[in-house]
Fold each of these.
Amino acid sequence: MTAIVLPRVLRGLLEEVDEGAAAGLALDFAEQCIRDTGAGVVPAGLAETAIGYLAAARAHLGGGGMAELASAHQRYFDARDHADQLPAVITWIAVIAVRVACQRDMEAAGVVARVRHVPTVAGVADEAQAIAGLAAGKGDDGHRARWEAARRQLVLLISAVPVPGS
C-alpha cells in the first residue's frame, strides 16, 4: 500500500479553496495550533490575547469595523513583547493568519505597513505543522506531531466544505 502523505494532500486541496474560505481556514488553523500545540506551553493570558486577535479578524470578515481589529492587533503585540521564546513562536501564527485574512484592509486603515507578499492559507498550514514539530522535539516525536497537525487541519478543511449546490 502506498503511503498517503497528508501534508501533500492538504496542500493540494488548499490550492482549490476560494479566497473567503481560505481566510476563515487560516484563522481556524491558527487557533487550532495555539490551542493544541500551545496547551501547557503558552501562558493563558498570551493564548487568550492571540485567540482574541483571531476572533477580531473573524468579526472584521463578518462585517465588523476595523477599530476592534486594530485594538486586538496592539494588544497581541504588547503581550508578545513579554513572552518567552517558544510561546512567542507558537502564537506568531495568529499574525500570519490575520495577514492572510485581513492584511490589505489593515493596510488601508493604516494599522500595518504595506507589504508586497501576503501569506496564503497553505503557508499557515505549513507553519502550524512546523510549530507542532518544534514543540514536540526532534526525531519521531516531531514527525508525529507534524503529521497529527496536518491530519487535524484536513479535518477542519473537510468540515468547512459546503455541500455542492447549497
Amino acid sequence: MALVCSTSVVNYEAFEFIDCGTLSISYSQRGIASVSFTVVTTSETLLNDYTNLSFGGVDFRLYLRDLTVSLIPGTLVYTFQMAMVGFGC
C-alpha cells in the first residue's frame, strides 16, 4: 500500500504583528496624534488590542478612525490597515 499525503490539510504557525515599515505618527497643533500602521496576521480577526500602544517611549491611547482589511493574494495572510487618532504622552 502506497503512502498518500493529503494536500488539502494546511499546517502553519499562527502569527500577528505590526509591520514596522508602515508605521506613521504625526501630531496636529493641538497635540492630537494621528497614527497609522498595518497589522499582518493569519487570522480573519485581530487577536490583540491596538488602542494602547507604546512607540519610542511614548504611550498612545488611540481610537480607530479607519480600517481596511484585505487578504494577500495567493496566501492565507490578512492585512489590517489601521488609521487611528488619540493622544501620546
Amino acid sequence: MNQSFYQALFADDKFAMAIGRLTLSSAKLESSIKTFIDAHGKVEASEKSPLGGLITLLLKHHTIDRTAGEHLQFVLHQRNYFVHKLHSSLSEYPENEFELQRFISRASALSSEMDFFSSALAPTSVEA
C-alpha cells in the first residue's frame, strides 16, 4: 500500500468515524466488564487489565452463557485485528472504494456488537 492510500483514509470522515467509534466501544466494553466484575465481588480486576484479561476473568469467575462467552472471545479477536494490527490490516486492502467501504462496515458492525455486550452487562435498575 502506498502513502497516498493512508492520506485518503485519513481524509475519509466515514473511515475515521468508524475507527473512532470502534475505539470508544472497546473502551466502553472494558469499563462495562470491569464494573460487572467489581459489582459481583467474586474477583478483583486491575485498573490496567486489558480487554482480553477482563474477558478471561469474566468467563472464569462468573456464569456466562457459553455462546455469549464464545462471542466475547470473537469480539476480542476482531477488536485486536482492528486496533493492534491496523497497519497490516489496511495493507491487505486494495485502493478501491468497495474494499474501503467493506472495511468501514466491518469496523462499524464490531462497534455495534461491543455496544450490545456493554449494555447486556450494565446493571439494571428495578423500579417499584
